[in-house]
Amino acid sequence: MILEMKVPSPGESITEVEIAEWLVSDGDYVEKDQAIAEVDSDKATLELPAEESGIITLKAEEGDAVAVGEVVCLIDTSAEKPKDGDVSTEKTKVDKTEVAVRQEENVREEVAKESYAKGVPSPAARKILDEKGIDAASLKGTGKDGRITKEDAVKSVPSMGTPTGGKRGEQRTKLSMLRRKVAERLVAAKNETAMLTTFNEVDMSAIFALRKQYKETFKDKHDVSLGFMSFFTKAVIRALQMFPSVNSMIDGKEMVSFDFCDISIAVSGPKGLMVPVIRNAENLTFRGIEAEVKRLAIRARDGQITVDEMTGGTFTISNGGVFGSMLSTPIINPPQSGILGMHNIVERPVVKEGAIVIAPIMYVALSYDHRIIDGKESVGFLVEVKEALENPVEILMDGSPEKSLEL
Question: What is the pLDDT of residues 208-226, one digit of tens each?
Answer without folding.
Answer: 999 999 999 999 999 999 9
